[in-house]
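Changelog-adjacent note: as of this version, every example in the card shows the full chain rather than a window. The one below runs 462 residues end to end.
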Amino acid sequence: MRADADLKPMGWLGIVRCGLVQVALGAVVVLTTSTLNRVMVVELALPAMLPGALVGWHYAVQLSRPRWGYGSDMGGARTPWIVGGVGVLALGGFLAAVATYVMGSSTALGVTLAILAFTLIGVGVGAAGTSLLALLATRVGPDRRAAAATICWLMMIAGIATTAGISGAFLDPFTPERLLAVSAVVVGSAFVLTALTLWRLESRSAAVRKPTGDAQKADRPPFRQVIAEIWAETDARRFTVFVFASMLAYSMQDLILEPFAGHVFAMTPGQSTQLAGVQHGGVFVGMVLVGVACSGWARGRLGTLKDWTVGGCLASGAALVGVVLGAMVAPDWPIRVNVFLLGLANGAFAVAAIGSMMNLAGAGKARREGVRMGLWGAAQAIAFGLGGFLGAASVDLARTQLASVESAYAVAFGAEAVLFVISAALAARVAAPRSRDAAHGPPHESESTVASAAGPQPSPAE
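Full-length structure tokens:
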């Protein structure tokens, strides 16, 4: 069993330290999915489908997330899985840069190395990301989970933006050797930051006291049994379908919003990039809004995480209906305001969904948090891998069947709006959980709809 005595929920400093791990993850991922993508397509003149396939492969590898979550559940602590995952991610990130360098002289060898590199990237992101979310789910009190989700994801965005800006400055004037040097600094810094940030974050008193003999067998059931138990839980299964549907809708717009701005509103590349910035600004505001509304004194007074999840999906669908109308009456449509509202709704639903994920991870049987997070992370990875492709493909298909490009984009965004409405209906069917952890105190009345399915939940640690 776990030692529950004298443990406290993770404080704000601990949450920020977890956010720094997200900074490290974002730094390596943006290097591999953005910078190296551009080098392959522009400097090396390789087909754009090559980096697209590699990024898709790294999402496919993340189907292993439930297995990594199981490992951290059965082990004595989450930290080794997070640090180890970031280590594998850093190795994969640098190997991806080496592969890009090698492609300049041998495409076949470079692609082979790139496949290995993106496999490591998928494993690293899956192991570290799943275990980090499980750590937050088990160590952060219910009154701080929305704020924790907001802090961690905003810090990840900050890490992506900072890395892109600084590494971009040092990459000019571009040479393959400079690319290797910058990559080495980024991945090395990410690993060191993670190791230092997590040093002694988990209290020793929170470690698992490992049983022996028959008790050990009962305490460490096989992975297949655990995943079957979780899939048998109605709310866990419903939430998995919701995560897939909502993240599919969320990612479908990624590859078509800027082309839409150019085709329909005649925006220049610079103007369409600024429009994307407007959307990200809306996402930022939406995340902060939910973090404030569902934390501290405001928790329950301004709506629950479930309310914001359902409402955010419906608002995203409504904003997309606005985009559809804009396609029909362009250029006489306030597209920037519309896109800002879309980002606002997207940010609100995303953070609320992550907060709900943390709550649900601890709602069932103890020591299953990592597997639940892994299951939902795998659903999200599949959705992200498919979403961008399906969004772009739907526009291409619609353009072959319809007379105008405006109508083609209207169909694509309309389909996305419908998917968000379906996601809202799915979220509404998921019962808000009652925390197992007495140390967190009783949940708010509006969040108490189901009782615990098993024994006491481990208390969070500093």
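Structural remarks: The chain is about 75% helix and 0% strand.
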